[in-house]
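Notes from the 1:1 (GR / supervisor)

We went over the backlog. Supervisor wanted to see one worked example end to end before approving the batch request, so GR pasted a single chain during the call. The sequence is below; no edits were made to it. Supervisor asked that the structure be written out right there so they could see what the output format looks like.
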Amino acid sequence: MEKKRRFLINTAVLTVGNIFMRMLGLWFRSVITVRIGASGMGLYQLIFSIFMLGITVCTSGFGLAMTRLTAEGKASRGCIMRCLGLALSLSAAALCALFFGADFIAARFIGSALAVCPLRILSFGLPFIACCACLKGYFFAHRNTVVPVIGEFWEECVTIGTSLLLLDHSGLPPLESLMAGSTLGEIASVIYIVPLFFSYTRKHAMAKENGKIMREIVHIGGPMLAGSFLRNSLLSAENILIPVGLRKNGANGATSFAQYGIVQGMVMPIICFPMSFITSAATLMIPEIAESSAKHNEKGIQHAAESAFRLTLLFGFPAAAFFMVFAEELGTIFFGSAQAAQILRIMAPLAPLMYIDNVVDNMLKGLDQQMFSLKINLCDSLMRVALIAVAIPIFGIRAYIVILFASEIFNAALSIGRLLKVTGLQADIISWIIFPAVCGSLAFYIMLLIKKIIGIIIFKK
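Structure output shown during the call:
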């Protein structure tokens, strides 16, 4: 009972933090969209898609290893130092590659010289991101969500505050100002979390040293690192190919960046915003399920998986209904874009699939199924790159939207099938799918009625 109460409290803390962070993020995106326009947002997204490769190198494997090993009671000082050392070493290599390769990347892959300085500025944040990923993984494994949440809030405030100050007063170009703000936020996050980590570890006993710990770190982190890097490489290739394909379809350079920016920089953040409510529980499921798996508690794992399916879809379908009903209002309020509103309504049904895929992926990580997730994600990414390269030059942005639907269906179906097989859980179609879908349909008509009533009242006035 105490364990369940602690899980709920931590989930609530993390959820509130995620909601606030995403609200800040959406507001910040709406502000910078006004400053740099849709084409600038497209270039901004492309730069970050390249930067994500560097983040993947220094965070994807060893942050997860820290969480898993700490949850399993194996986090000795040697384990922590090895995770940090590996992450920082890889971040240094990624920093050098991004800094010295910025000219080549901007010319050959992004197609704009404006990306060179932003890439170099971002590269200096990689060691700080690597350090934070490992230390946050340690706190999550100890079910301490307060420290990471406050850290993310602090980082976001510094990022937004310094970015806006630099935009208004530094005289730097807009993209350089935004990237400098991002790097300063990452530095501020490390300044916050490192002292708290040392204070926390002094008060809590460490595990005994294990001579085989390096092998376990590599077993957990290695596949995740390789897989995430390959997948993000393909994702970067995908993001680069989209503007290229749009130009082949007839759009000029600015228009191709603008169309890409509307989908990835405007619509997707809105659809992903409600994930704040479930990402917290999904993240905390990794140590919970890892612990249950280590204790061979099959009933506990099945109960967690069943609850996750039912609650995620019960939330996802009404969220999709909300996007469909209020697409114009959301597109106008956040970005002042009618095209963003149209695309948001079309893409709204993606929401339940995206949310359940995120939750299932985290559960598979907790069950030591990262290799299977890797294979699925790689196949999915290869399929997307191939389809984008062939279809977008012919059919334009509409093809990209269809590809996103096909990708989510493919990925979610295989991940769910694997989770059911590993846990021995039987799918409950009525409880998991039909009932949430009916609730979503009812929510759609209720929200539509409310919208019409509000419109009538305003019109009368």
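Supervisor's comment: The chain has 18 helices and no strands.
Batch request approved.
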